[in-house]
Fold:
Amino acid sequence: MNRIEINFERCKGCYLCVDACPKHLIEQGTELNASGYYPARPTAETTCTACALCATVCPDVAIEVFKDVEAPPSKAAGAPKAAGAPKAQPEGIKSCG
Structure:
């Protein structure tokens, strides 16, 4: 299941993420953090598409997006694996070599 995590202490409650979420899955929190802000919080994440618009607009880098990735189909039993095949990278991370 796709989901987001909002760092409760890092969020300053600007709510740019609330406006950015196309599924309206983020809302204003009701509890103060240690800095005196009401941080944003996710609502029902069951329909999250992991589009990462919320994380992109967050000026405090307080949002992490987790996208479920289906496992690739398994190769036939006994088939050798390709040597030096690139390893899977999390979305948005590029390999340097």
About this structure: The chain has a mean pLDDT of 84. The two ends are 31 Å apart (CA to CA).
